[in-house]
Amino acid sequence: MTQLPRxxxxxxxPEHGYNRAVELAIAFLDRVxxxxxxxxxxxxSTLTFCPPLNAYATGRSVxxxxxxxxxxxxxxxxxxxxxxxxxxxxxxTKFVRNAPIAVxxxxxxxxxxxxxxxxxxxVIEQRIHAVDRSAEHQQLxxxxxxxxxxxxxxxxxxxxxxxxxxxxxxxxxxxxxxxxAYLIVHGKxxxxxxxxxxxxxxxxxxxx
Length: 208
Hints:
The chain has about 210 residues and is α/β, with parallel strands linked by helices. The protein has helices at about 15-30, 50-55, 85-95, 110-120, 135-145, 155-170, 175-185, 190-205, and strands at about 5-10, 40, 60-65, 80, 100-105, 120, 125-130.
């Protein structure tokens, strides 16, 4: 039997809505025998808008950006991530580490680049997401990641970030969504505020 990826992506489909998407996410987590699964949502009140999610979350730990700093959940748990924005997607990826994860996409925020970067199975389209980039392109992204050891908040890190973004721009390779997805999936120490900082730097480079 072909081994499934550890990540699943359920794109938003208006004709099916969120309930069906959550059911598909649960089925994936069951199929990979995920245990101790947590639920990641923008806020706890979100649960009440999706009955299948609310039922699944009963008796499980629920993680939100607001309670994450006080959470005793710990790292390495499988997760069902519901309607995430960039903040929730970064939070979930950080907490899950190498455990299984299923992301139910929000109508207002695409998680497709995250799916590409992590190599998720697209449950709707029955395909595996992947990236296709040159070795040079990959190296530039890795160097951006390396420059961010302190969240690109120190002078040297910020200098290197700007230089590397400029190199991507010169090669017509600068894609904001791709860079942020790469950092969410492969970043070691980055928090949401650091991602916002990088996003603003990319906007400045692209506007120049």
